[in-house]
Design brief:
Blueprint (H helix, E strand, L loop, with lengths): L2 E4 L6 H18 L2 E4 L17 H7 L11 H19 L4 E4 L4 E2 L7 H9 L2 E6 L2 E2 L1 H6 L1 H7 L4 H17 L2 E7 L16 H14 L5 E7 L13 E3 L4 H8 L4 E4 L3 H10 L3 E3 L30
Parallel strand pairs: 1-2, 1-5, 3-5, 4-6, 7-8, 7-10, 8-9, 10-11
Helix pairs in contact: 7-9, 9-10
Length: about 300
């Protein structure tokens, strides 16, 4: 059976997930095996995501944490970087790169180099972060949801939390506020303060037929309740996985221009309003209400 191995580690969790689900959908379409060797840092959170590669499974994911170097994370990164370079050199005739321009995959579009090389080899190595498959991730949404379902403990905790909130509120609006690196990345182009977000949320609340709404707020840094006066706000745990899948269970996501909110939107099949510098210019909230996931022109970092 033909195999596609993803070998490029790029970015954090949701950057990697956008790549992974696109290639996985391609493999479902073609009947190939998909194995993401570069997903070593996050595989533990997804019980249905496994690897058959013994080097990654035992030496990087298992033994790497026992070496006693600076940190578990840095040890794994160093070990995987060495292995990645070996794979590129050892299998260079079977490596396909996608790092500058988008490489679309079937059923979206048949990439010529992929089609040609898969005829010549049983195994291909995908090196890059820009393999995309917008038609495929729609076609195989349910299979992808099952594949990337979080561990049971997370799912049960979210079941309890969201059930409790649904009893109290008519609508639950997810809010993702990216702080940290966004203050400086691209000269702070995508960073907006909690105070700015509060103005946006108050604007949205005025447009709702019901005022019985809760804003479930997730951020990579602590927030203060005083930053969000006059709205019912609830701060989620801050845990990466819990935040991601909590957002996916809301009715609408309002958030930073990041792959994080965009993936939650896709997984939950809910709309995603990207916060930009347009406020206080009037936002067409009606456009986002009662929609599902869509290829969002405002979400420029995903590269659909």
């Amino acid at each position: 059976m033909k195999k596609i191995l993803i070998i490029k580690e790029y970015g954090r969790l949701t950057n990697q997930l956008w790549l992974y689900i696109s290639v996985y959908a391609f493999c479902l379409e073609k009947g190939y095996v998909c194995d993401n060797l570069a997903f070593y840092e996050y595989r533990k959170y997804f019980p249905n995501v496994k690897t058959n590669n013994l080097i990654v499974k035992f030496f990087i994911e298992k033994l790497g944490i026992l070496t006693g170097l600076r940190s578990k994370k840095s040890v794994r990164k160093v070990m995987y970087k060495i292995y990645y370079r070996y794979l590129k050199q050892r299998h260079k005739k079977r490596v396909i790169k996608s790092q500058k321009n988008i490489t679309y995959l079937s059923p979206t579009k048949e990439a010529g180099e992929v089609a040609r090389k898969i005829k010549e080899h049983d195994t291909l190595f995908f090196d890059g972060w820009l393999f995309r498959n917008p038609d495929g991730i729609e076609k195989y949404r349910e299979e992808i949801r099952k594949k990337f379902k979080p561990e049971d403990e997370v799912s049960r905790g979210l079941d309890r939390k969201m059930s409790s909130l649904r009893k109290k509120y008519d609508k639950i609006i997810g809010v993702h506020i990216r702080q940290g690196d966004y203050r400086h990345w691209q000269n702070g182009k995508h960073y907006f303060s909690p105070t700015f977000f509060n103005k946006v949320l108050e604007s949205f609340k005025k447009k709702l037929d019901s005022q019985d709404v809760c804003f479930l707020i997730c951020s990579d840094e602590p927030l203060r309740e005083s930053d969000f006066p006059n709205i019912n706000s609830l701060f989620n745990s801050g845990n990466l996985i819990e935040d991601l899948f909590a957002l996916s269970r809301t009715d609408l996501i309002i958030g930073s221009n990041s792959t994080f909110g965009a993936f939650a939107s896709y997984y939950g099949d809910i709309p995603f309003k990207v916060v930009k510098g347009e406020f206080p210019k009037e936002i067409n909230w009606e456009y986002y209400l009662n929609k599902g996931y869509f290829e969002n022109k405002g979400s420029t970092v995903v590269k659909y």
